[in-house]
Prior knowledge:
By secondary structure, this protein is mainly beta. The strands form 2 sheets. Strands 1-2-5-4-3-6 form a 6-stranded antiparallel beta barrel. The protein has a 6-stranded antiparallel β-barrel with strand order 7-8-11-10-9-12. It has 3 helices and 12 strands, in the order βββββαββββββαβα. A hairpin with a 3-residue loop joins β1 (about 10-15) and β2 (about 20-25).
Amino acid sequence: MFTGIVEELGEVTAVETLDDACRFRLRGPVVTEGAKHGDSIAVNGVCLTVVDHEGDEFTADVMAETLNRSSLGVLEAGSRVNLERPMAVGDRLGGHIVQGHVDGTGQILEREPSEHWELVKISLPADLTRYVVEKGSITVDGISLTVVDAGPDHFTVSLIPTTLALTTLGHKQPGDPVNLEVDVIAKYVERMLGDRAQGATR
Length: 202
């Protein structure tokens, strides 16, 4: 489990394209400290498994399903990525519960800068709109954010200077894709209410 509090802005150093997958080599001195084979690291919000680790770099295999459901397929050598290690038992939950299981991708639509913050408008796939509510939580490229406004096909978030400086959202422009993970609690509630409604009609 992750919290959506990005630990560092890492970099893709190499991409190896396989028949039905990719192998990424990524640099991240913070997240690789003490890393070992089999550990999990979130890369732009996608939970990946450490295959190999050397110095401040690690490799991770990404299967076709993940490439199809996320924006990892557009990464290339030199791309910047948000990195976060899993939450340890007993740690503070600084953001919200994040699984690292991307629900879909959106696209940066607009950026509206202000003196001390920036409003960013992001497109929202139709099948995810029911999970996104004003002042609720959403994960964008692995960053735990609060929804400012929820529209029928988009939502907005406000970014403070720290988020702009230390994550990919400080660099992405209109047209760029982002990974989205909605609040898992909303999905569980929907399933339970659906099961209850079905039971009532039997």
